[in-house]
Amino acid sequence: MRAPVVFIDGDQGTTGLQIHERLHGRTDIRLHTLAAADRKDPQRRAQAINACDIAILCLPDAAARDAVATIVNPAVRVIDASSAHRSHPDWTYGFPEMAPGQAARIASASRVSNPGCYPTGAIGLLHPLVRDGLLPADYPISIHAVSGYSGRGRAGVEEHEGDGARQAPAYQVYGLALAHKHVPEIQQQARLGQRPIFVPAYGAFRQGIVLTVPLLSRLLAPGTTGATLHKCLARHYAEASQVSVLPLQETQALQHLDPQVLNGTNHMQLGVFENAEHGQILLSAVFDNLGKGASGAAVQNLDLMLGQ
After folding, report:
1. How much of the chain is in helix, strand and coil states, percent to nearest 5?
2. Alpha-carbon gap, residue 287 to 293, rounded angstroms
């Protein structure tokens, strides 16, 4: 039986390099990339994408759309790691644990859009709660997330690891216009009735994410507590191998969340913290922005599409 050809278009960036590293040495696929001299040749790229079984696009949004437009072979399947198609109705959203049956939909899809790093945490927390009616769809959601500097791609790595690393900021909040490109994706996939406020930041560490969502008990469905939300999330992810929910006893003992604790894995850990006296709840997600937030998710989707 012929091993399927997997073509990585854009294997020089942070996500593409990690995907290549994760797939290198596998004998169940034939991995194909372009030589440096061919990467900017539209004809060679079109030939490569039309000759493969599954293409993984690690490109800027416009380039990803252009690459898809060159596909004339109906047998070619695509995983797009850019944000170009994450809200497109004809593309399957590549978050296997998001909803019942999502993994099966990915497995049979011809077009899969890999989730964004921040949205993976936000949607992982919010989608089950909205679906079960515990979190009103019109709740005024605010999301804060801190990522390692590799989330900026090559520019972030160069700033912190290159010649000017000593001048690199230890912490920087960005997206101050409240128009981050991940917001529509979060709103759509989490089934929110209005745009969430999303405040992202970069820290002076290479990779890893801590994402938090604060909630007020009085604005939730009547009788909803932190334990109620925890039970919903724990039930939703009970069978998931790559997403887990911290037991309430552990969250009560935690004093801090380390964004780097799951680096190098494709795992995401969710938590629910509560101060019942003040009616406040905090949802949290910790994961590797280059793992479950990017390359790990792409490989997970690839394996589903390969029937593994």
Report:
1. 35, 20, 45
2. 7
Q: Which residues are bridge partners to 203 per DSSP?
A: 148, 171
Angle at 185 between CA 131 and CA 143, to 5 degrees: 75
pLDDT in tens, 25-59: 899 999 999 988 888 888 999 999 999 999 999 99
Residues marked active site are found at 117
Q: HSE (CB half, 13 Å, CA atoms) of 17?
A: 7
Tokens of 62: 């416009």
Residues linked to residue 270 through DSSP beta bridges, in sequence order:
245, 285
DSSP state, 142? Answer: E
Fold topology of 117-289:
Dihydrodipicolinate Reductase; domain 2 (3.30.360)
* CATH fold label, 5-115+294-305: Rossmann fold (3.40.50)
Per-residue CA distances from 124 to 21, 104, 252, 268, 304 (Å): 26, 18, 21, 9, 19
Domain boundaries, the chain: 5-115+294-305, 117-289
Q: How far apart are CA 288 and CA 308, in angstroms?
A: 23
